Amino acid sequence: MTQPLSSRRHTANALGALSLVVADRMNTAVEAVAGLGPSAPAALVAMHEFLDGGSVTQLSSALGLTHSGTVRLVDRLAAAGLAERVGAPDGRAVSVVLTARGRHTAERILRTRERSLESVLSALSSDEADHLAAALDTMLTALTRVRAEERSARTDDRPRPWLCRLCDFAACGRGEGDCPVHNEATS
Amino acid sequence: MTQPLSSRRHTANALGALSLVVADRMNTAVEAVAGLGPSAPAALVAMHEFLDGGSVTQLSSALGLTHSGTVRLVDRLAAAGLAERVGAPDGRAVSVVLTARGRHTAERILRTRERSLESVLSALSSDEADHLAAALDTMLTALTRVRAEERSARTDDRPRPWLCRLCDFAACGRGEGDCPVHNEATS
DNA sequence: TAGTTTATATGCATGAGTCATACACAATCT
DNA sequence: AGATTGTGTATGACTCATGCATATAAACTA
Q: Does strand D come within 7 Å of the CB of A55?
């Protein structure tokens, strides 16, 4: 039996409300850790998870920023002693690596994020949490597919942020290579 | 039986990932409607739903902006013909009302939001959607309580954005007065 | 009537980003 | 090898939404 339309609409509304609060709280908490702007946490986490030593260009497409925007961001990270530019094999490129402090900060960001999220989950019963997890996985998988389609259909090639921005790969729970989101990010 | 810890962590991670994408997509879609900055959609919807004719101060606390920030926002809305300032009974205050175009824009914003959210839900089976709805309600209720506590424990009285920002009250599905979020907003 | 509080508005500053452009190195094609 | 074209990085000038400090005006209060 199909869920009545009115109920779907209610669910959509609640999903919007919840996503907004959860994302807001998470972003606020996480931005405060480094205090270097809205993109810094995502940059640090991306490098920590799969992009350490990557080029500015790679970083820019993971974050959905302009190249020049990313250059400024790397400037800030470097000035704060969280990352540094080292020479890359390719002479024109630059390899952005996390310093020890940077890696430490990235880990603090992940922990902060997790705390923020678990405080939201703590209201749920086990059953509710299980069902929620199933629904989340379904939606994430679907969204990854949608994004892939959108990407191929796009004319303006403005990069968009990495879908799984801020994800903790260790907490993903899917085996290596099993997470479509992860795969999209690293491919 | 309790959900194993590793699984909780997975759920938290997925919740973070999903909230981020959903909120991102929603915000991007909705900001494009008026094109007057990140706060404009929330302002229009707030006025449309419960704050039409309200003062700049009321608006500022619903949005979590500074008063001056809100003044500039109202300037932009007025310049775009979406709102106007009319005299209030209180001579120093100002009453910000939506124009016909403003009201129309607010409705378009709500529809855009709803489309964005329903595209995410469409991947779910009826059962999944039902369970999701239950979990969402639980979490929203809990979050409302948490916010109320946080508010009373705060020293710096920086306003924070209205929790149910962008909500479509008609889609809320709870009866008048039954939605704690709604109640918090309008009280 | 004078002083305080409340509401709005404004000048100036800032931070994070964009765009256009310059520059350095690499890859490719005669 | 030399010239051309492409790719990666950096920088100068600007935009835009916001915050802070302050000014002004109206409303309460003593």
A: yes
